[in-house]
Amino acid sequence: MKLSVIGCGYLGAVHASAMAELGHDVVGIDIDARKIDQLAAGTPPFYEPGLPEILTSAMASGRLRFSTDIADAAGAQVHFIGVGTPQKAGSHAADLSYVDAAVQSLLPHLAAGDLVVGKSTVPVGTAARLAGVIEASGCGASLAWNPEFLREGFAVKDTISPDRLVYGVPAGAAGEHAAAQLNEVYASAMAAQTPLIVTDYATAELVKVAANAFLATKISFINAMSEIADVSGANITELADAIGFDNRIGRRFLNAGVGFGGGCLPKDIRAFTARAEELGRGESVSFLKEVDAINMRQRQRVVAMTLQALDKPVYTAKVAVLGLSFKPHSDDVRDSPALDVAVQLRGLGADVMATDPQGIENSRLRHPQLTYSTSIEETLRAADAVVLVTEWAEFKQIDPVWAAALVRVPIIIDGRNTLDAAAWRAAGWIYLGLGRP
Ligand code: UDX
């Protein structure tokens, strides 16, 4: 099929490349010329494992090209909208200006029978409004909402082999036609018996925000338990293992630590709350404000633990920060708890040196006041305390005996509860985890 993908960020660039890899003829479009130039040269503008490989092979096949000209979408039968919906400045609501602009700019290039497919995470009600815009234009195209559940770091796999597909479609024949077109796009997932839910717009939009709200709640739940563990002497990791054996609960997303960040979870729970308030049902999801508060508190907790552990005033201390990206396998530092902790410590006067396998470049753009190093050894040297805030394998593999010889004072704050506390203590370290005695 001929497809266009509007927006070539984390979502769109992966989607365009994966769809071409699956055999479709794809044009990826973005208004950012730098991004398009990089993609067209076969170099993704961000780190995503597996993406360079499929980008290169799809481009070599001739099935994938990139453009800054929306007119190049003409001729495609299905047009995916994968632009960002960041948090609005000065509000918790989602900024829909990129989605609206993408649809408006696409309208003149749509033909009768074309399908516009929203993938961006939007407040419930957006698809119905956009369907009205498309209908009013008289172009004869229709709209479906097909939320994306990909995780950064696993985006290629999640796009090529999704764990489920959700289509929000209009009622009647138009909806059947839309579902049939999407089944053709996702023919390989269909052949693999991927679970499919065909539903209305509102449900499809809500599925995405509800899934992210649930995941965020699960993380904040375990972080709240870890606060109780701290004051009661319980061990949060053993607690998570024990409750996680209950299949109804499950062990995943029960890792206590410095909390969730990234371009999705934090802004999605805020936008959900804002939308529920607009709909007059703010109280239904008011617990998400608590989820957010618990999450943000973990960053303060890690900073406070560091200050307390230091044997000297913070403004005279060198603090080594291991981790900047919001999670491993990503260079994304949007709303990253790790970067936030580094910045807060720097703001208190500490001489912060931070390292990360992928997140330095993006962090430097936002916070040039921090000192960055690509070397773990240099980062640790003469440190008065070490704070681990992203659980990269490179950090988990650090030999505590080797590291103890580098630092000035062997204190480690494990903000991800990821190290072997006994091994670090045996090597002479003061080891401090969150909710771990
Ligand atoms: C998330 C959703 O998982 C994905 O389905 C959706 O499409 C986009 O948002 P992503 O932002 O890539 O994906 O990251 P995810 O793997 O969900 O992690 C989010 C944050 O939660 C990270 O900062 C991670 O470190 C943190 N986290 C995760 C925890 O603190 N504890 C856990 O147990 C799990």
UniProtKB/TrEMBL annotation:
Its EC number is 1.1.1.22. It holds the Pfam family UDPG_MGDP_dh_N. Keywords: NAD, Oxidoreductase. It catalyses: UDP-alpha-D-glucose + 2 NAD(+) + H2O = UDP-alpha-D-glucuronate + 2 NADH + 3 H(+). Residues 320-421 form the UDP-glucose/GDP-mannose dehydrogenase C-terminal domain. InterPro entries: 6-PGluconate_DH-like_C_sf, NAD(P)-bd_dom_sf, UDP-Glc/GDP-Man, UDP-Glc/GDP-Man_DH_C, UDP-Glc/GDP-Man_DH_C_sf, UDP-Glc/GDP-Man_DH_dimer, UDP-Glc/GDP-Man_DH_N, UDPglc_DH_bac. It is an enzyme of class 1 (oxidoreductase). Pathway: Nucleotide-sugar biosynthesis; UDP-alpha-D-glucuronate biosynthesis; UDP-alpha-D-glucuronate from UDP-alpha-D-glucose: step 1/1. It comes from the Bacteria. Belongs to the UDP-glucose/GDP-mannose dehydrogenase family. NCBIfam families: NDP-sugDHase. This is UDP-glucose 6-dehydrogenase.
